[in-house]
Amino acid sequence: MNNTVSEEKIDRYLEITKKALEKLKIAAPDRSFGKRLADDFLDMATSYYNDAKHFRDVGDLVTAFAAVNYAHGWLDCGARIGLFDVGEDDVLFTLFE
Fold first, then answer.
1. Over 80: is that where the pLDDT of 70 sits?
2. CATH number at residue 80
3. Could you write out the three-class secondary structure of the chain?
4. What's the distance, Cα to Cα, between the start and end of the chain in Å?
5. Is the pTM higher than 0.90?
6. Confidence band (pLDDT; 50, 70, 90) for 15?
7. What is the domain extent for residue 31?
8. Is residue 96 part of a domain?
9. What is the pLDDT of residues 73-87, one digit of tens each?
10. How far is C-alpha 75 from the chain's CA centre?
């Protein structure tokens, strides 16, 4: 079992999350509560993603790993409950069905 957080592993996870951020679209109508939720989920994901890049750059790979996983968790949750349109991509996202 490999339980080491390497630079390669962080870079791979950052790339996956970057692709997910680039792919998704807000699904909720502009004037809906769902839009506010979607925007908040996206802000949280983007903040954690940027934190992960920062921690990777300063060599704190464990915190970078945690942050990128939190980022992608926000994206998966938004996709799963329908806030984000991800084109039924069940590779980059965890969908309900």
1. yes
2. 1.20.1270.90
3. CCCCCCHHHHHHHHHHHHHHHHHCEECCCCCCHHHHHHHHHHHHHHHHHHHHHHHHHCCCHHHHHHHHHHHHHHHHHHHHCCCEECCCCCCCCCCCC
4. 30
5. yes
6. very high
7. 7-85
8. no
9. 999 999 999 999 989
10. 4
